[in-house]
Structures
1.
Amino acid sequence: MPELPEVETSVRALRDSLVGETFSEARIYWPRHIDRPDPQTFRERIVGLRVEDIGRRGKYMVFSLSDDETLIIHLRMTGHLAVVEYNAPLRDHTHTILGLASGKELRFNDTRKFGRLYLVRDQEEVLGKLGPEPLAPDFTPEALATQLERRSMRLKPLLLDQSFIAGVGNIYADEALFHAGLHPKRAADSLTKSEINALHAAIQKVLRMGIAREGASIDRYRKPDGTRGDMQNAVAVFRRTDEPCYHCGAPIRRIVLGGRSTHYCPECQVL
DNA sequence: AAGAGACCCTGGATGC
DNA sequence: TGCATCCAGGGTCTCT
């Protein structure tokens, strides 16, 4: 499942092959992928727009286009983007194809069809509610403390809330809490200053590790070129239910919080 | 504000 | 081998 490190990895790869390209057509085979505008308008409006830069905000890929337009793509669970030659064999579940003036194509493949494309002039209408970027300079331990002290939610569901922190998903939330030594059910406003510092450091540590390892290919995530990342080989708790904790040997436990599976070490992360 | 649950989807796992 | 059922997971929505 693409989270911040997986999206960042994909953005970096696409930047090389896509910046400078101009869209020549849009072929939409699953219209519900187009969140806005309506698919017909999307199809007409994207033609002739040039990709000037590709960035990332949380788990969203942000394509800055000519004419002050922005293409925003969220991969959700199984979305995958790749730039290929127009005559490359078509894979199953390729639901949208954006033709490029060079003859190549940007193909959006998404088995579970949760991914979304947005073509907007004001990107704030899509990104406006996102919380801070966890690797940005202004995300300091003090900033995190200010956010935490006014919330009483349990840490795990809070970390998954994109308006609290942008980009953290189920893998990196579990990993960050393990590295911080914090129980997933701890109330946000109950943390001491040193625990907040530990959480802040752990969030940045696991995200940077994920980027350095080019993402976690735990389910179906692949880089744009189809190869795997390496972060799945460095997880401490995620999907390691009943396996021994690398730190203390206790079996990793799995519980469900906020409807999401949650993995933690009952010895290293006491409530 | 917090928490629970439904929904969208499909492939893979599990059960019989 | 084959069929039915369950489940994960990001984000959004509804209800309490």
2.
Amino acid sequence: MEFPGYRPLYRQVYDIMVEKVAKGVWRAGESLPSEQALARELGVSQGTMRKVLDAMTAENLLERHQGKGTFVASNTQERSLFRFFRMVTPDGERVTPARGVETVVVRAARTIEQKRLDLPKKQRVIEITRTRLLEGRPAILETIILSASLFQGIETRRPLPNTLYSLYQTDFGINIISTEEQLRPDIANKDDQKMLGAPLGAPIQCIDRIAKTLQDRKVEWRLSRIYAPNLAYAVTLS
Amino acid sequence: MEFPGYRPLYRQVYDIMVEKVAKGVWRAGESLPSEQALARELGVSQGTMRKVLDAMTAENLLERHQGKGTFVASNTQERSLFRFFRMVTPDGERVTPARGVETVVVRAARTIEQKRLDLPKKQRVIEITRTRLLEGRPAILETIILSASLFQGIETRRPLPNTLYSLYQTDFGINIISTEEQLRPDIANKDDQKMLGAPLGAPIQCIDRIAKTLQDRKVEWRLSRIYAPNLAYAVTLS
DNA sequence: GAGTGGTCTAGACCACGCA
DNA sequence: GCGTGGTCTAGACCACTCT
């Protein structure tokens, strides 16, 4: 690993600004000072400041609106769904899930969970198991693992909202900005039959997702089993 | 639909440059004139030209290298695979497919094909059916539909390369820059059993892909059936 | 009209690749 | 040492929003 002997100014400013946003110097949805003010504050030109703010906007970290100002991006419910929930009808229209039943337990972390979430040893985790409805029918069986120390008290919030990521942000200061997903096909087992009404042996889409914060910290591991014969998982690669 | 009464200069320059790249004014892999030269040629400042070139770089249309120049992005085989082929091992390591058997036919387009590829009526299509190997085993069964007029003569090129997108680019001047995919789980049928050695009823990942050019023209429709028990389809959302 | 982000320019200097 | 892209600045003007 070569350490860069040269660090552009805008890179340094970028790191400072990301740090500030991550630390919550400004709340989600709140407006930042103007370009001018920030540039003065950090002792750089307005052009350099702009480069930084534009970069952060491109990464969905900030939102800028001409005439209004620069705002910390907020995972509103719709936006959060729109970004990370990818199921569509054959026509390409997005569907949105509704809440089903849920159970929450706090327990010791298993080895695999420690590994997937980079948890320290002896860490406790929160396990959320829930179903979600698509088109009025139970269609998704989800197991969600969270670090108990990061999400202290989430087990007492019942019922949980449908879009957990906005809850993470508003109540725990944790802003999910990217996810890594792996998809595998599977066939319905007895659990799927019981919870989703899927015939044994029916095709199931399994999604294994790790959700990460700004600083690339892995904070949620989610396993979803989806039985939705008429829907597909849509993604655009470019 | 409001028509924008105001068109920034860099937008106009962007459109001109994209048009030039699309028309093949410079070949894939070739270098463009320098920022300075292009700016002079189009009568804008170097800063504006830079903004355009940077935007095109961000869209994988150009590549820029300090000290060397600006180049038309080329879908080299590895790059093309890296971008659009998403299968990974449980550890997250990418696997690359190898060529299997293939058949090519030219025939009249079906209604569904006309619709998916926005083809004019009476258009003929080329249908490529092939298998691809993963880890030495037949694992992917693919049906590829192309407009016969765009890819005239491709049916005589046997064997076809593993990475079709570089062939489209080098021999037909068609540069795939984005794809829209829909994933659905399915269970193995007799074809899958025969061609891939999948047990009847085994889980199969189906991918329905439309590939698009720079101008958002839909040029390829590809249906893949994947039987790969130890692999997953990986994607990062951000 | 005041304040914000958005565009555009001109010019200086830096880092990199290559001959 | 030259030419390339990469960084940084200072300043002008434009478009949008709100009051």
